[in-house]
Structure to design on (190 residues):
């Protein structure tokens, strides 16, 4: 389900407002201001997963999201914007001085589709580079790469190996307990 341009603008504005409100309240690493929905376009009230990415130029500054569509899209974007700015473990909390230089990018996910593969070779054959986001799960570990990661890792084998390492496994890891899902995204930004 693709969003119209006004809905996309509304989501970007919500993401900005989430971060603005935290900075204005002096809580950059503290508590998120609660989401209080105004009158929202119908497409923003559907349960849908999102990822919010912050960049300064081409440099990643934060990225957080959900895979399981736990809440309405507008609220998911609100929460993930705050998380990308203030709780991405790879970066210190965003400061008010940095905020004017950040670009927001949103990725709205389709529902994950389970891939029935029994080997890495089958997985590599099933992947659609530049289209698929990928989720790998085994036991208690789970990791994902958005389709945008194909830009940095265009080789499917390298894409999968890097994702396995992100999950905390060796690059050569494979087990009959590995569960694989793929999804697509609708991506847009400022």
């Amino acid at each position: 389900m693709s969003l119209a341009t006004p809905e996309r603008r509304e989501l970007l504005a919500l993401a900005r407002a989430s971060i603005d409100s935290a900075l204005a309240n002096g809580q950059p690493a503290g508590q998120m201001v609660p989401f209080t929905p105004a009158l929202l376009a119908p497409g923003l009230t559907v349960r849908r997963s999102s990822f919010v990415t912050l960049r300064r130029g081409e440099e990643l500054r934060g990225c957080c999201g959900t895979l399981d569509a736990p809440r309405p899209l507008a609220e998911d974007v609100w929460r993930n914007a705050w998380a990308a700015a203030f709780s991405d473990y790879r970066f210190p909390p965003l400061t008010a001085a940095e905020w004017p230089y950040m670009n927001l990018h949103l990725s709205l996910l389709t529902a994950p589709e389970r891939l029935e593969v029994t080997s890495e070779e089958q997985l590599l054959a099933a992947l659609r580079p530049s289209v698929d986001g990928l989720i790998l799960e085994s036991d208690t570990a789970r990791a994902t790469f958005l389709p945008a990661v194909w830009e940095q890792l265009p080789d499917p084998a390298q894409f999968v190996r890097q994702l396995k390492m992100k999950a905390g496994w060796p690059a050569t890891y494979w087990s009959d307990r590995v569960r694989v899902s793929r999804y697509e995204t609708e991506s847009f930004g400022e």
Q: What stands out?
A: Residues 5-24 form the longest helix (20 residues). The CA atoms of residues 62 and 91 lie 7 Å apart. Residues 5-109 form a domain with the Glycoprotein, Type 4 Pilin fold (CATH 3.30.700.20). The first strand starts at residue 50 and ends at 56.
